Amino acid sequence: MYLLIVALPLVGTLATGLGGRWIGRKGANVFSTSCVIICCFLSLVAFFEVGLCGVPCYLSISPWISSGALKISWGFLFDSLTTTMLVVITFISSLVHLYSIQYMEYDPHCPRFMSFLEIFTFFMIILVTADNFVQMFLGWEGVGLASYLLINFWYTRLCANQAAIKALIVNRVGDFGLSLGIFSIFYLFGSVDYELVFSSASMYTDYTIHFLGLTIHYLTLIGFFLLIGAIGKSAQLGLHTWLPDAMEGPTPVSALIHAATMVTAGVFLIVRCSPLINLSPNILFLITIIGSSTAFFASLVGLFQNDIKRVIAYSTCSQLGYMTFVCGLSYYNVGMFHLVNHAFFKALLFLSAGSVIHALSNEQDMRRMGSLLNNLPITYAAMLIGSLSLAGFPFLTGFYSKDLIIELTQISYYSNLQISYGIFACWLANIAVFFTSFYTFRLIFLTFIKNSNSYRKHIENIHESPLLILIPLILLGFFSIFVGFLTKDLFVGVGTHFWSAAINVLPMSYNLLEVEFMSYSIKWLPFMLSTLGAFLAYTINIGIFKKNTKFAYTYIFRKLSFLLSKKVYWDKLYNSLIISPLMNFGYIISFKNIDRGFIELLGPYGISRVIKNWSIKIIKIQTGQITHYTFFIVTGLCFLLLLAPAWVFLELFLDIRLLTFCFLALFVV
Amino acid sequence: MITQLYCENYTFFLFFLGVLGIFLNQKSIIIVIMSLEIMFLSVSFNFIYFSIYLDNIIGQLFALAILTVAASESSIGLAILVVYYRIRNTITIELMSLTKG
């Protein structure tokens, strides 16, 4: 059964990808969807067995690579962490499959799309079920590849091509970090198996290496490399630029990749490597700083985005920041909890955005929407649930994890806890809550409630989406309401045994109990902030400030909103500071100067030119004049006679046999 | 009387004169052949001188051989010269540059 979870998506992708021509559109839809739905049920069973009954399953299949000390085998590890991820992945994936049957109805390449979705699911499952780093890396790279294929699904569009290449390359920066991390893990532990690495990690806490005169704490180095991998895949600040651009793919793809699964792989990596990362406080510090900066920055940039998918993409980025920094505070279980919850409501948001886009004849700009409340009631309800959940409305899914995360940062105000960087995270997270609530409600107001701005033609054609689109929305809506409450005690409850050995939480910084006894004024703060954000969005968009354009046209506000809608010029900076110098370096220096210049000059081109020049010069010696020939004969004789006394010395350096051989060779050739 | 030691110098001087004749002469090919004859003569003179000096007959035999070789060589050379002249109507050395590299 456990192997079937891994194998079914592979079967599905191969059948629909290679046999799509024969089984046709309907066949591909039904086959791939049923494959992944069965996989979903199986992983629910696995979740029951492993997570609830507490029976981890470890399958060692066959040796893969065996070279000296390096022994890697195919193995599948199903512990509570894996099965949690499995449930999320397969559930979201099966709903996305179901959704895209209808959504991609008029697309001519439906089997290919299904195959790509399925191969993505497959690689994601490989990623989470792997029992060693290399197999995990296989899934990691495969997910990147699948994201390339999916973003580039409409490959005739230039934007899609560029976005896909960007996604792949920016991810590859992180992948490089991860591969360095795997190398350094192998260097230290001599193995890449999770069980060996994690069980023996605590023996190397004082291990240092010396490199270029620096003394480096080795576990910090490993953690740093793993963190780079997580930054790339989870779109943390610095390598986040690919995520919003990746919205060029079809909407179900955004829901699958950029909401629920692929971007969570980075967080999954951090959580999986918790026994390693816990041992280097500097890396925990770094993770916290980067995660909270991401949460803040992405929510800030999301404020004035006008593309409905981009807003959600930035909120994804922001929520990933939350997950990451709570891992940095060493509450990996809370990070996983938020990951699970976030997957449900973010998939819901994306799919409802897709429903809106579908209804409006592929209009994505929020400024051209409005007053869809009457036309798309179910989509509105779904979107509202998702938004409230995202904004952390009490008793919805998002509340249980997000508020807990913020409370965990708030507790670092107690000075005797020695986690001062938590205060940084606390500030940024609280501000991010305000921003999050602002942009989600801005999205709701602009899309559903404000007066319509769309074309008459679009409004005439508007219709609530068909059943196959609504079913996933409704299901995800239910889950977005209830999952947080249902799994709260399981994932982060007091003394829960769920994570058993899968997650290593630092005992000394484990303050989940203290969080429960914080003062109410602090506990209410996030809720207040999000209410304030929603209220502000209301007043600006449909409330009293709606008509007040004076404020909107002030110089500072205009510049600020322009800056924010341009993503704070981050891409521009990257382009002009890193990418274009690199491209120029590649063309001018490494291609034109070194490859076609220097090496060619030393190599074929230069040598042939030198030989040609010299041969022309030597040819010119033969003038045809007898006098010149006699001159050469006589001077040659004189030269040889002069050289004759020097032969005694030359003999030492020249082998006469070799010279004879060369001389003979001249005639032979 | 020419002493024995001076003989060596004379033969060398003659040979050098022949070389210079080939060298410095830019006009007539006949002069080249004459210079060649001078060189042959100097060499055979040298052989004869050394055969007397070392009291060895081989040198004189060589001188005889050289005389015959020189005679046949000059006849062949003159024949080539005549053929050349028939074709090109000139025997000026400066204009003999058909075999330019």
From TrEMBL, chain A:
Gene Ontology terms, MF aspect: NADH dehydrogenase (ubiquinone) activity; NADH dehydrogenase activity
GO biological process: ATP synthesis coupled electron transport; electron transport coupled proton transport
InterPro entries reported for this sequence: NADH_DH_su5_C, NADHpl_OxRdtase_5_subgr, ND/Mrp_TM, NU5C-like, Proton_antipo_N
Name under which the protein is recorded: NADH-ubiquinone oxidoreductase chain 5
Domain NADH-Ubiquinone oxidoreductase (complex I) chain 5 N-terminal: 64-114
Domain NADH:quinone oxidoreductase/Mrp antiporter transmembrane residue range list: 130-408
Domain NADH dehydrogenase subunit 5 C-terminal: 439-643
Reaction catalyzed: a ubiquinone + NADH + 5 H(+)(in) = a ubiquinol + NAD(+) + 4 H(+)(out)
Locations listed in the record: Mitochondrion inner membrane
Transmembrane intervals: 29-48, 83-101, 113-130, 136-155, 167-189, 209-232, 253-271, 283-304, 311-331, 343-360, 380-401, 421-445, 466-485, 525-545, 626-646
Sequence similarity: Belongs to the complex I subunit 5 family.
Membrane topology classification: Multi-pass membrane protein
Any one annotated GO CC term: mitochondrial inner membrane
Keyword entries, A-Z: Electron transport, Membrane, Mitochondrion, Mitochondrion inner membrane, NAD, Respiratory chain, Signal, Translocase, Transmembrane, Transmembrane helix, Transport, Ubiquinone
Domain of life: Eukaryota
Coiled coil: none
UniProt function note: Core subunit of the mitochondrial membrane respiratory chain NADH dehydrogenase (Complex I) which catalyzes electron transfer from NADH through the respiratory chain, using ubiquinone as an electron acceptor. Essential for the catalytic activity and assembly of complex I.
TrEMBL record, chain B:
Record carries keyword Kinase: no
UniProt superkingdom: Eukaryota
The keyword Protein transport is assigned to this record: no
GO function terms (MF aspect): oxidoreductase activity, acting on NAD(P)H
InterPro entries: NADH_UbQ_OxRdtase_chain4L/K (IPR001133), NUOK/Mnh_C1-like (IPR039428)
Subcellular location: Membrane
Name of the protein in its database record: NADH dehydrogenase subunit 4L
GO BP, one annotated term: ATP synthesis coupled electron transport
Family to which the UniProt record says this protein belongs: Belongs to the complex I subunit 4L family.
Residue spans crossing the bilayer: 7-24, 30-54, 61-87
A Gene Ontology cellular-component term: NADH dehydrogenase complex
The entry's keywords: Membrane, Mitochondrion, NAD, Translocase, Transmembrane, Transmembrane helix, Transport
Topology in the lipid bilayer: Multi-pass membrane protein
Record HAMAP family: NDH1_NuoK
